[in-house]
Amino acid sequence: PSFSRPSVSDDNPYSESLFRTLKYCSAYPGKLFENIEQARQWVHRFVQWYNQEHRHSAIRYVTPGQRHRGEDTALLKKRQKLYETAKVRNPHRWSGKTRNWNPVNEVWLNPPREIRAREQKVCK
Asked: Where does the Integrase catalytic domain lie (predicted)?
């Protein structure tokens, strides 16, 4: 059963976001776990994947591990250079600006409108 309040989408946004990610993970089990240890092992593997392999759109497609270790800045600069080079080589494939590869300083689950609008803008 759910303990969230009815019709309140952000009652507990952190756990709701995690549960949605769990449910839609391709490795999500289609049947119940046989015991608590099996469940713990699956969750442990999921956390490893989520933090070290899964690229998060909210932090410009780097992993939380890369961001935590400070590897995101160099990686995002490299991506920006790659996109700029691709745009120069094939300008007909670009109708506007390239993707925004600036590092993200703050992450929101439910950002205010003005922050959402600002984040949707892309850099040159």
From this structure: 2-64
Contact 66, 72 (CB under 8 A): yes
**Which token pair is 26?**
């391709």
pTM value > 0.85:
no
Residue 49 neighbours by CB under 8 Å, 6+ apart: 25, 27
Give tens-digit pLDDT for 89-114. 999 999 999 999 999 988 777 778 88
pLDDT tens digits for range 61-88? 999 999 999 999 999 999 999 999 999 9
Instruction: State the virtual CA torsion across 95, 96, 102, 105 in degrees, nearest 10.
Output: -110
